[in-house]
Amino acid sequence: MKKYIQYSILFLLFIGVPASVLCQEKKLNAVDGQQKETLYLKYKKEVQAYSKKDYDAMFFEFFQKKNDSKITLTKEEYYTYTIKIAIYAEKLGLLYKDQKAEAHRTKKEWFDKNYQDYLNSKK
User: Fold this and answer.
1) Highest mean pLDDT among 6-10, 21-25, 99-103
2) Separation of alpha carbons 88 and 40, rounded Å
């Protein structure tokens, strides 16, 4: 009986705990998630028609505003920029098949940006 308890404890420590920790994922605020999906659908066709010059101008504008201490973007403005960047990354993945995995990772990274993190960086 003592061995059974020891094996059970070992099982929980080595298998159960790491599995439960690894299976947890960061929960996205439902309101932010819906807002991002709405913006994605709204801007998808527009951004897919962007030239490299259009994208560079938008990307540069975002970082100027984001890094300006006198300007604080609204939640919608912030998510509009990040979602547009994510859409453009998706476009690149469609254009360059050998870059598809990298483009998908980049899209996810930009899609997962959080407005609260942005506000915290402004403090």
Assistant:
1) 99-103
2) 11
